[in-house]
Amino acid sequence: xxxKREDYINWDEYFMGIAxxxxxxxxxxxxxxxxxxxxxxxxxxxxxxxxxxxxxxDDAFPWNRNNPDPLCNKYFYTTxxxxxxxxxxRGGTLEGxxxxxxxxxxxxxxxxxxxxxxxxxxxxxxxxETTPGVxxxxxxLKSAGVEMIPYQPTGREIKLHV
Length: 162
Prior knowledge:
The chain is α/β, with parallel strands linked by helices. Helices cover 27% and strands 17% of the residues. The protein contains four helices and five strands, in the order H-E-E-H-E-H-E-H-E. It has a five-stranded mixed beta sheet with strand order 2-1-3-4-5, with helices on both faces. Helix 3 (107-116) packs parallel to helix 4 (132-143). The longest helix has 13 residues, at 11-23.
């Protein structure tokens, strides 16, 4: 009898890898964010990435972020990856689920995470940690008992061969 492989990826690598792969679907020229929601039994429930809502022509709306006219920037029109993943789920409740996300959620996404019943948040990047939106997000998540877990990369390079 042969021995099993020992170099397989762990659950965190797998689900964060799916979040990063989802981010690659984003058409945003500046920031690509992906999310993956997982059950307690390590089953993928939903995925999402940042972009315009379904049915919105992404060539007819702006991708800008610094235009003096706020209506000419992407922020009023795009949906964040976390909210997309929550809204994409069609299987009932997300109560007790775990969310893997490539960028720490903003305060608006934190509200949706809490309301959806997600109990754990694994995040890869926290580059906006000093902004009011992320500070508020962390306050709400902590108050609601959502465990915030920084992703611990193993240093392993994962490549797709297609």
